Amino acid sequence: MKIHTKSVHAGDRKKPPEQIPVTTPIYTAASYISARQEELDRIFGHELEGYSYARYGTPTGAALEELVNSLENGHGAQACASGMAALELAILAALVDRPKSILAAEAIYGATLNLLVRVFEPLGAGVRHVDIYDLEAVERAIAAHKPGCVLMETISNPTLRVGQIDRIAAMCKAAGAALIVDNTFATPLLLRPLELGASFCVHSLTKYLAGHGDVLGGIVICDEAHYETMRTLARTNGPALGAFEAYLAMRGIKTFPLRMERQCANAARIAAWLESHPRIESVIFPGQSSHPDAAVIARLFPPGLYGAMVSFRIKDAAREAVFAFIDRLKLVVRATSLGDVHSMILYPVISSHREMSPAQRQRLGITESLVRLSVGIEDADDVIADLDQALKG
Ligand SMILES: Cc1ncc(COP(=O)(O)O)c(C=O)c1O
C-alpha cells in the first residue's frame, strides 16, 4: 500500500482487546462497519441492536443514557446537546399524537419560556400559562384548554417553588395529556418525576449531574409509552450529544450523589446564616418551615435534602447596589449556570429572566433586589465569609 492509503487505514478499526476497559471509552466514530450488509439492514430496521451512525446512537451516549435512566427509574433516555434541546425533544414527543397545545407553569426558566414563545407558538401550538402551585387553577386550565402536555419544573427557577407533581400527573393522565417535568434543580437524589406519574423527565446535564462546569448537555428520560416516539424523533431531529460530552457527563455523575448531599447541607447552612443577616430582606430556600410549599416539600423530598439553590433579596437594593454586591464577591463565581462544584451567583433580572416583562417578573417575585445563589461543595464557612464581606461593602 502507498503512503496516502496507509495514512488513512493503517492501525485503525482494530478489534478491541478481550479485556474490558474499566470506564466507557469515548467513541467518536460517525459511522460503524457491519460484518455483512444483512446485519446493517437489520440494525437500520431495528430488528437487531447495534450501531450504524452516530446521530442514531453511540456506545458512549448509550452508556450515559443507561446511567441517567437508571437514576430516574425511567424506561429509556435520549442524551441531547443541551438542556434546551432536551426540552424541545420532550415537548415534540409529547405532542406528536396529541392536541398541539401546551399548558406551562408561569414560574419557569426564561429560555424555556422563549422556547414556547419563539418556537412552538409560531409553529401553531397554543401556549397557556398557569399558576402550577394552585391545583384548582391547574384543573380548570386543563379542562378549559385541553393541553397535549403540561410543562413544569420540580423546583422553579429562581423563586424555588415546589409543585405537586403526583397530583398534577394524575390530572394529566385523566385528561390524556403528557406531563413533562424539568428536574434539573431537584435532581434524582431529591425526587424522580416518572415515579410520580410524569411521562417525561428532562435535565440540563450541564448542571448538577455533570457538575463541574465543563460540559453542555441535556437528557430526556421517559416512560415506555413515549420511548419509541422519542427515539424516532431524535434520530430525525438530530439533537444527539457528542461522545466527548457524553463521557464528561458520565464521569461527573459518578460523584453526583456525594456532591449533591454536600451541596444541600451547605445550602441549608448558608440560607440560615442569610436569614439572620441585617442586610437581607428575605431568603427563599425549600428547607424553610415558612416556605409556601413546605407541606409539599415534606411529602415529596427526603428529609434534610432540599436542593442547593438559595435565592435572597437584599434590603433596599436596586440594580446598582446588587451589581456592587456581586462585583465585590471574591470566591463565589459571578457567572451564569448552576449546580457546579463551585458556588455561583446570578442576577435573574439581567440574565435568566431578562426577556420577561417587568410586570410578569414582579408577579412572580423576581424583583430587582433578588439574587440566586447556587451553592457548591466548598467549606460553607468560606462561602459565608465571602458573602459577608460583599454585603458589608
Ligand atoms: C431549569 C433549567 N432547565 C433547562 C436549562 C437549559 O439547559 P442548557 O443550558 O443545558 O441548555 C437550564 C439552564 O440554565 C435550567 O436552569
Annotation keywords:
393 residues; alpha/beta; Aspartate Aminotransferase, domain 2; Aspartate Aminotransferase, domain 1; 2 domains; seven-stranded mixed sheet
| Low-pLDDT residue intervals, each spanning 5 or more residues | none
Helix content: 40-55%
Count of beta strands: 12
CATH superfamily of the largest domain: Type I PLP-dependent aspartate aminotransferase-like (Major domain)
Largest sheet, strands/sense/barrel: 7 strands, mixed
The total count of helices amounts to 15
Strand order of the biggest β-sheet: 1-7-6-5-4-2-3
- Overall tally of domains: 2
* SSE pattern, N- to C-terminal: HHHEHEHEHEHEHEEHHHEHEHEEHEH
- Tell me the Rg in angstroms: 23 Å
Query: CATH first level of the largest domain: which class?
Result: Alpha Beta
CATH architecture of the largest domain, please? 3-Layer(aba) Sandwich
CATH topology of the largest domain: Aspartate Aminotransferase, domain 2
Bound molecules: pyridoxal-5'-phosphate
Distance between the termini: 72 Å
Apparent shape: globular
- What class do helices, strands and sheet pairing give? alpha/beta
On the 0-100 scale, what is the average pLDDT? 96
- Estimate what percentage of residues fall within beta strands: 5-15%
Folded structure, characterized:
This protein has 393 residues and is α/β, with parallel strands linked by helices. It folds into two domains: 57-253, Aspartate Aminotransferase, domain 2; 256-392, Alpha-Beta Complex (Aspartate Aminotransferase, domain 1), CATH 3.90.1150. Helices cover 41% and strands 14% of the residues. The chain is built from 15 helices and twelve strands. It has helices at 3-9, 37-44, 59-72, 83-95, 110-120, 135-145, 165-175, 187-190, 224-237, 243-253, 256-275, 294-300, 319-328, 358-364, 380-392, and strands at 76-80, 101-105, 126-130, 149-153, 178-182, 200-204, 218-222, 280-284, 309-314, 333-334, 344-346, 370-374. The strands form two sheets. The chain has a seven-stranded mixed beta sheet, sandwiched between helices. Strands 8-9-12-11-10 form a five-stranded mixed beta sheet, covered by helices on one side. The longest helix has 20 residues, at 256-275. The model has no long low-confidence stretch (mean pLDDT 96). Residues 82-84, 109, 111, 153, 157, 182, 184-185, 204, 206, 216, 218 line the site of pyridoxal-5'-phosphate (PLP).
